[in-house]
Structure formats: structure tokens, C-alpha cells
Amino acid sequence: MIIARVVGNVVATRKDVTHEGQKILLIQPIDLNGAESGSTLLAMDGAGAGPGDRVLVVQEGWSAASTVGRQSSAIDAAVVGVVDQVEIA
Amino acid sequence: MYLGKVIGRVVSSAKNEALVGKKLLLVRRTSDDRTVVAVDAVGAGAGEDVYVCRGREASFPFSPEPVPTDATIVAIVDTVNDYR
């Protein structure tokens, strides 16, 4: 999983049937200081996240699809949690 | 998944049987301007903004056909809201 920030969303009318009714979030990976780190990606929302939230993102198909309750979905990334706090030992 | 724009197509006559009848489109990835070839699952065309599913899951829209692809256009994008 990676830590990222939700920076927006995407609206698409014509899409794969397994994406219908799902929230598609624009995700910016960040480092532990909160600075942008790497390319933006799209992930399905499996945790009720919204713009500005710091989140956990899985980038593996089986896990991503299972968060939205459908196996065999054409989904390769999903938000699986909203981060409250990160503690560094 | 990642955002991109359809900038062209690829024609291939000699190809894997499972790719016959599939549209191969050139997609410029928005985040880094790299160009990838993706199979179309939604009827996308040149100039359209799309998003692409990558990896094993890219073949799922064609299930049960075992289409050999690691990148598939799974949606035509109407709007991108970037709140940054």
C-alpha cells in the first residue's frame, strides 16, 4: 500500500459496467512529509474518502476489486483507508 | 488506473487470435506524457480523454475471452476535477 492524498475525482458516463456507481478518485502519492512524490493515478473509493484526505491505496487488482465488492472488475487500484495519523518510531 | 488521451491507433494484421476485432489505440498518459498502446473496451476514439486499467485486470472487460492485454481503456472521461 502507499500513502497518498485525494486531490480530485473523475466523472465518466461511458465506462466499464463494473465501474458503474463507483467513486473514481484522483490520487497523488505523497512522502511522509506530505510532499508530492510520483505520478497521479486513479483509484476506486473503498473507504468513503474525499478531496484533501490522506489515504491508503492498494495497487493490486484482486485487493482493489474486492474493496468495491466485485471480483473480476477492471480495477487496478483502490482507496482502502483514510489515514488519521502516522507515527514514526 | 491512469488518465490519458487517445492520440491514434495501431493496425496489426498478424496478431493473437484473441485480439482479432479489438481496437488498439495509442494513449498518451497525462501524468508523464509517455505513450502506451491500449485495447479499447468502451468505443473510444481519437482526441478523447480516457482512463486506462493496467495489469491482469485489463483483460477482465472482455471476460470470458482471454484477451492478452496489460492496458485497456475502461472509460471515456467527461470531467476531471483536480482541486489542487
**What is the strand arrangement across the widest sheet of chain B?**
1-2-3-5-4
Largest sheet data of chain B:
5 strands, mixed, barrel
Outline of chain B: globular
Question: Which fold name fills CATH's third level, the topology of chain A?
Answer: OB fold (Dihydrolipoamide Acetyltransferase, E2P)
- CATH fold call of chain B: OB fold (Dihydrolipoamide Acetyltransferase, E2P)
Could you walk me through the main structural features you see in this protein, from its secondary elements to its overall organization?
The complex is a heterodimer of chains A (89) and B (84). Chain A is mainly beta. Chain A has one domain (2-82): EutN/Ccml (OB fold (Dihydrolipoamide Acetyltransferase, E2P), Beta Barrel), CATH 2.40.50.220. Helix content of chain A is 8%, strand content 37%. Chain A has 1 helix and 6 strands; from the N terminus they run βββββαβ. Chain A has one helix at 61-67; strands spanning 2-11, 14-15, 24-29, 41-45, 54-58, 78-82. In chain A, strands 1-3-4-6-5 form a 5-stranded mixed β-barrel. The two termini of chain A are 19 Å apart. Chain B has 84 residues and is mainly beta. Chain B has one domain (2-76): Beta Barrel (OB fold (Dihydrolipoamide Acetyltransferase, E2P)). Chain B contains no helices and 6 strands. Chain B has strands at residues 2-10, 24-29, 35-40, 49-54, 71-76, 79-82. Chain B has a 5-stranded mixed β-barrel. The two termini of chain B are 20 Å apart. The mean pLDDT of chain B is 95. The interface between A and B is medium-sized, with 31 and 31 residues.
Structure described in brief:
Chain A has 89 residues and is mainly beta. Chain A has one helix spanning 61-67; strands at 2-11, 14-15, 24-29, 41-45, 54-58, 78-82.
Which labels suit this protein?
heterodimer, A: 89 residues, mainly beta, OB fold (Dihydrolipoamide Acetyltransferase, E2P), five-stranded mixed beta barrel, 37% strand, globular, B: 84 residues, 6 strands, 0% helix
